[in-house]
Design brief:
3 domains, about 575 residues, Rossmann fold, alpha/beta, six-stranded parallel sheet, about 40% helix, 22 helices
């Protein structure tokens, strides 16, 4: 009788799924898997912290639109992943987290790293799976990948007890399913209704979110706005699905972004949400006119109608729906009349875009020392001007400043934590982006607070020869919290908001990387040029103005439960 171990079954199933990298930190409870992945087609990419491993897997999932895979050991290895898993859930990222755990015969015996893991993580994932029988491991792995990628993507947890990994079973008793779900449902009747509502509108706009990116709808979306003449805003992973440089794309849909977003969101009489969510970013729907008609298209029915009544709910794949809409526009010969009708609205937004950016220009062009953080963001934006350049943003205020500034020319080329606001994503995201795209320039801008979360991933970048460039906006502390406290209670509480000057660049030099410090805005661009020319992991420590308050800090000071009593 030919036998096979549980660990071998895991390795074989992952190889069958054509997994290229597993982001991981080793541990005893997953060694039975490691030993069968050694010298296999899969590369074990080891990080310095489990949180960083899951952040890398999350970035991989976002960038490839296929499940990123992370693997960790039991107990503290598992608990170290939780913030990153929650971030992936909020961002709808396809991800499979595999965790070892104590053997079933050692539960409640006070064995090493014993804890009930699945109940902890179950509310945070699409599905929590626990496989106790080694012969069923391929079934569970197939299910994990299928669930993570289908419908609205998200993280899936798979727990494998170490005794199941070590056990040997009869090979003939093992089922090895391999199912790929690719479903693109479309509501033909609702497509007709969308076009009818567009014909009745005077000031429509489209907001394309992460669902547009995961549906791979860029060509259809661009064709749709060009055929209708409707202005477009993008959000989350939808940024870049149509380039910000397109005349009908008015960049980010966030109202705090300098440009036309505030005028567009508040002035529209029809808003078409394409795979976007009615979140805090739109004041839970209150940002739009009470009289505006709302169309929400989503692959996930439960998402439609969150926070505000929707006039037309459409459960559909974005790409398939847009194909149908474009066909209807052609059939009805609306390609000339609609753009003419909406031209005054586009001109209004074009003027609003110019006015909004004019108001922000003093920050972008500031010569102040310490450096204005908006000037830093603009210098990075201007330098990273190639279509294939990848920019990652991490931090509180720092992420806000970059989000207010970055021109996204291509989808999948701008990353930040998103709505969960999780700090520490920066270096893992940048490392994953560079690993996936070794020929592209990758620049991370991060706050001095957030850089501390996963600082040793600098060492990972150096060890793995990933020449990322990391720019730290060093405002001496936790700027967003400091400023929100000043606005809310009249002063910042120094304990907990002040870090002080730290020579992060010297720490990176000590690890073997390149370090630079910048204090004058005129020196930012030369530092960036030198950093990328070095082709070595580099830290540029930029001393920025600690008194500059971002719109994000203002929003935090006035946010619901945070208001002073």
């Amino acid at each position: 009788m030919e036998t096979i171990s549980g660990g071998q079954l895991v390795a074989d199933a992952l190889i069958q799924k054509e997994v290229a990298y597993i982001f991981t930190l080793s541990g005893g409870h997953i060694t039975p898997i490691y030993q069968h992945l050694e010298n296999s087609a899969i590369t074990l990419f080891d990080t310095r912290h489990e949180q960083a491993a899951v952040f890398m897997a999350e970035a991989w999932g976002r960038l490839t639109r296929k499940p990123g895979v992370a693997m960790v050991t039991a107990g503290p290895g598992f608990t170290n992943t939780l913030s990153a898993v929650a971030n992936a859930r909020f961002a709808n990222t396809p991800l499979v987290l595999i965790s070892g755990c104590v053997g079933t015969d050692c539960i409640e015996k006070l064995d090493l790293q014993d804890m009930r893991q699945a109940p902890v993580i179950e509310p945070m994932v699409k599905k929590a799976l626990v496989c106790h029988k080694p012969e069923r491991i391929p079934e569970f792995i197939d299910a994990a990948f299928r669930i993570a990628a289908s419908g609205r993507p998200g993280p899936v947890y798979l727990e494998l007890p170490v005794d199941a990994l070590n056990a040997n079973v009869n090979s003939a008793s093992v089922k090895k399913p391999h199912t790929v779900v690719s479903s693109r449902p479309v509501d033909l009747e609702k497509a007709e209704q969308i076009i009818a509502m567009i014909q009745q509108a005077s000031k429509p706009l489209v907001i394309a979110g992460s669902g547009s990116w995961y549906a791979d709808s860029s060509p259809e979306l661009q064709e749709f706005i060009e055929k209708t003449g409707i202005p477009l805003f993008t959000s989350a992973s939808g940024r870049g699905t149509v380039a910000d440089t397109h005349p009908l794309c008015f960049e980010s849909s966030l109202a705090i972004r300098p440009g036309a977003a505030l005028v567009g969101n508040t002035g529209a009489d029809l808003v078409v949400f394409l795979g976007a969510r009615m979140s805090l970013y739109y004041i839970f729907g209150d940002l739009f006119s009470p009289t505006a008609k709302l169309v929400q298209v989503d692959i996930e029915p439960e998402e439609i109608g969150r926070n505000r009544s929707i006039d037309l709910a459409v459960i559909s794949d974005i790409k398939s729906l847009l194909k149908v809409c474009n066909r209807i526009i052609d059939q009805k010969k609306l390609g000339e009349s609609l753009p003419k009708k909406f031209r005054p609205w586009v001109l209004t937004l074009t003027q609003a875009d110019q006015d909004g950016k004019s108001q922000a220009r003093p920050g972008w062009e500031s010569e102040a020392v310490p450096v204005h953080p908006m000037r830093l963001a603009r210098e990075i934006n201007d330098f990273m001007d190639r279509k294939d350049d990848i920019v990652v943003a991490d931090g509180g205020d720092t992420q806000i400043w970059m989000g207010m500034t970055r021109t996204v020319r291509k989808a999948g080329h701008y990353l930040d934590s998103g709505l969960f606001g999780c700090l520490g994503v920066g270096i893992p995201y940048a490392n994953a982006a560079k690993l996936l795209h070794p020929d592209k320039r990758v620049c991370l801008i991060t706050g001095d607070g957030s850089i501390g979360f996963n600082f040793m991933e600098f060492e990972t970048a150096l060890r793995k020869k990933l020449p990322i460039v990391v720019v730290i906006s060093n405002d001496l502390g936790w700027g967003m919290i400091r400023h929100s406290q000043e606005l809310r209670i009249g002063h910042a509480i120094e304990d907990g908001t002040y870090i002080g000057k730290v020579d992060y660049h010297k720490l990176v030099e000590a690890l073997g990387g390149k370090g630079m410090v910048v204090e004058n805005p005129a020196d930012i661009r030369p530092a960036l040029a030198e950093a990328f020319a070095a082709e070595k992991t580099t830290c540029i420590n930029v001393m920025t103005d600690p008194t500059t308050i971002s719109p994000g800090s203002m929003a935090l000071a006035n946010l619901g439960g945070y208001k002073a009593q």
